Structure formats: C-alpha cells, structure tokens
C-alpha cells in the first residue's frame, strides 16, 4: 500500500521518504517545490536504490490531490507540506493561513472523497506558546504566540473535528520540537533559501565559511548560560517516528504526540558541540533577543514512548556530526549536483 507524502521533497519530508522506502513502503511525493529542489529526488534514489514516484502539485488543489490518491492506490497520507518561517508568518500571514490551514482542509476533503482514512500531520511545538511548566506535555494548554503557531493549531483543530465527523479520518498529530541533522550519507539535508533563520543551518554556514559569525540572540535569558534552550532532535529519528505513527494511527481516532528528546540544549552548548564535531571555529557575536523568542522549552517524551514505542536514539554529537557531513559535502546545498 502506498503512502502519499505531501512536502516529501523538503528537509523533513525527504528523510521520512527514505525511512519509509527502507521499511519497504511505496511512496508518492506530492510537492509544489516552493521550498525544495528537484535534485532531492535524485538523492533519495541514490540512497534507497529506487526513484520515488513524484507528483508536482499544491495541497490546495483538490482535483490533483484526488487524482494522485486514486491513481496511486494510497492507503495513508503523511502531511508534511507547509510554510514554516515564524517571521514570514507575521509579514505574510494570509499566505500562511492559506497554505497551512486551507491546504490541510483541502487535503482532508480529498481524502474523504477517495476513502483514504489515515493521516499523520506535521505539527509543531510552537502550538504551546510560553510554557507554564516544563517539560511540555501534550495536555499543556495551546497558546501560540505567532501566526505560524496559530496556523498549526487551527490545522490540528480542523483535523480533530473531521476525525469526529460522519466521514471520519484517523489523525496522528506529531508535534516536532527542533529537528536538525541529516541522513548519515550526507546526500540529503537542510538547505534553506537565503540566510537561515534557524540555529543549526546558520552554524553550519558559519563553519563552511559562507557566513562570518553566528549572532546569538540574547544572553540574558534565565537559563544557566543566559542563551535560549531548545529540544533538538535528529531528523532521522524523527522520520522513524512517522512509521510508528502510521502503524497505530487507525487504533485511536485522534493522537497528539510530542516528538522530542526530553533534553534541553542551549545555543552556546550547541555551538560548542558543532565546533567539536567539525573541528571548525564558530565565531559568535552577542545580539539582542529575537522578538517572540521563548527562553526555554523542551518536550516530555513519555507519550511517544508509550503510544508509539518511539524514543530518540541519536544525541547532540550525532546531530552535529551529520549536519556538518551534509554541509561539508554540499557547501552550496542541492546546487552542488
Ligand atoms: P521544508 O520547507 O523543507 O519542507 C516543506 C515542503 O513542503 C517543501 O518541499 C515545500 O516545497 C512543500 N510545500 C510548501 N507549500 C506547499 C504547498 N502549498 N503544496 C505542496 N507542497 C508545498 O520544511 P521542513 O523543515 O521539512 O518542515 C516540514 C513540516 O514540518 C512543515 O509543515 C513545518 O511546519 C513542520 N515543522 C518543521 C520544523 C522545523 O524546525 N523544520 C519544526 C516543527 C514543525
Ligand atoms: N538562535 C540564535 N541565532 C540564530 C538563530 C537562532 O541565537 O541565528 C537561537 C534562538 O534565539 C533560539 C535558538 O537559537 O534560542 C533556536 O532557534 P531556532 O530558530 O533554530 O528554533 P526555534 O526558536 O524556532 O525553536
């Protein structure tokens, strides 16, 4: 049975494809390539030995979704496609609601029309907002502080309502914390357009010499070294969790699970780990706090262990090693064909 993976050409989606294909599943990538490079398909083929089926389409295009789900005999969808920049979600909020909320609704409608019942959805820890208590458990209140987080919360809400409708879907919502690293081959990885917003790709570009220094946004947070703390997780571990979620999505109508390690790491700790993994100096400059940033958050990983039987296997050293391996082998990302 085939799994359709929206956003399958992107950073996380491409790693999910590889894990699915290694597990013997058929996949069809459904992506509009708005934030990905066609070369990724070739790289997936080089890793797995098989070229995945690919449909170039938008998640808001119900007709193309219906024809793809039908033609490929899909039994489930992993819905990864979305826009993910917190800053852009403020300046281009309508675009974010259209892609992330309307796109999720159109996909759910296409699934209802084709009788495909099971969906695993890429949600985000940003749905929680400022934590009342750490680690963050799935029953923590949802109070996102930016439009991006609100689009993810609204997509979750509409999927939950559809799960209880007369034409129900089974829904697993996976709340990612901070996915980083890359496949150990160094053939696929994170390749943001322009100057990276996120910490790990920024550090990688400093290490390879494409950027002069890392701006550390705030060193006066109430954390041991004053810099922000996040729960970084290896993207290959994260990808494996999707297979576990596919295997149990139809046993519970609605599942909401954090995908995190339960460990917090500060900006300066990650810089140190990356310097050790790469043997490169990472110059840092202290800069003011980034608006909207939260001092510290990390996941409770208990529910993922209980319901998915999943836990992260790789630590910070492996995340840095693999992020550096990707950057070193592809200094210009997928442009280095
Ligand atoms: P990415 O941008 O690398 O991948 C997203 C993919 O979706 C891209 O290939 C893009 O071309 C495609 N896409 C975008 N809009 C589309 C549309 N309308 N129709 C079809 N395809 C479309 O991002 P990523 O880091 O791989 O993130 C994947 C998902 O995980 C996103 O939904 C994101 O919100 C979520 N997420 C990411 C992070 C993170 O730190 N990377 C954290 C939490 C949640
Ligand atoms: N960060 C930083 N410099 C950067 C990018 C990020 O100091 O160039 C910090 C940011 O303030 C936060 C942490 O790194 O404390 C993780 O940021 P990222 O954007 O990767 O993830 P998010 O904040 O979305 O969880």
UniProtKB/TrEMBL annotation:
GO terms for cellular component: cytosol. One of its GO terms (biological process) is galactose metabolic process. GO terms for molecular function: UDP-glucose 4-epimerase activity. Pathway: Carbohydrate metabolism; galactose metabolism. Residues 4-322 form the NAD(P)-binding domain. It is an enzyme of class 5 (isomerase). The keyword Metal-binding does not apply. It comes from the Bacteria. Its EC number is 5.1.3.2. Its cofactor is NAD(+). Keywords: Carbohydrate metabolism, Isomerase, NAD. It catalyses: UDP-alpha-D-glucose = UDP-alpha-D-galactose. Belongs to the NAD(P)-dependent epimerase/dehydratase family. Homodimer. This is UDP-glucose 4-epimerase. It comes from Tardiphaga robiniae.
């Amino acid at each position: 049975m085939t799994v359709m993976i929206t956003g399958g050409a992107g950073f996380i989606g491409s790693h999910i494809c590889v894990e699915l294909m290694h597990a013997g599943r058929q996949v069809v990538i459904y992506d509009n390539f708005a934030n990905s490079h066609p070369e990724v398909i070739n790289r997936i083929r080089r890793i797995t030995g098989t070229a995945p089926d690919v449909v170039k389409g938008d998640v808001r295009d119900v007709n193309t979704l219906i024809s793809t789900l039908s033609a490929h005999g899909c039994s489930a969808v992993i819905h990864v496609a979305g826009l993910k920049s917190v800053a852009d979600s403020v300046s281009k909020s309508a675009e974010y609601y259209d892609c992330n909320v309307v796109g999720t609704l159109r996909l759910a409608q296409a699934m209802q029309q084709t009788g495909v019942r099971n969906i695993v959805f890429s949600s985000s820890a940003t749905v929680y907002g400022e934590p009342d208590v750490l680690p963050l458990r799935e029953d923590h209140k949802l109070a996102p502080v930016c439009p991006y987080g609100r689009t993810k919360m609204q997509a979750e809400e509409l999927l939950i309502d559809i799960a209880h409708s007369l034409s129900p879907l089974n829904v697993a919502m996976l709340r990612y914390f901070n996915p980083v690293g890359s496949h150990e081959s160094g053939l696929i990885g994170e390749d943001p357009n322009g100057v990276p917003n996120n910490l790990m790709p920024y550090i990688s570009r400093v290490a390879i010499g494409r950027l002069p220094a890392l701006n550390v946004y705030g060193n006066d947070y109430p954390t041991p070294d004053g810099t922000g703390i996040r729960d970084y997780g290896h993207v290959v571990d994260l990808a494996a969790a999707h297979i576990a979620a596919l295997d149990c999505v139809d046993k519970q109508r609605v599942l909401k699970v954090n995908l995190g390690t339960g460990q917090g790491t500060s900006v300066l700790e990650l810089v140190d780990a990356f310097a050790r993994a790469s043997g490169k100096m990472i110059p840092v400059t202290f800069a003011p706090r980034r608006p909207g940033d939260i001092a510290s958050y990390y996941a409770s990983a208990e529910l993922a262990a209980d319901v998915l039987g999943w836990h992260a296997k790789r630590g910070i050293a492996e995340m840095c090693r693999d992020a550096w391996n990707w950057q070193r082998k592809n200094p210009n990302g997928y442009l280095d064909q």
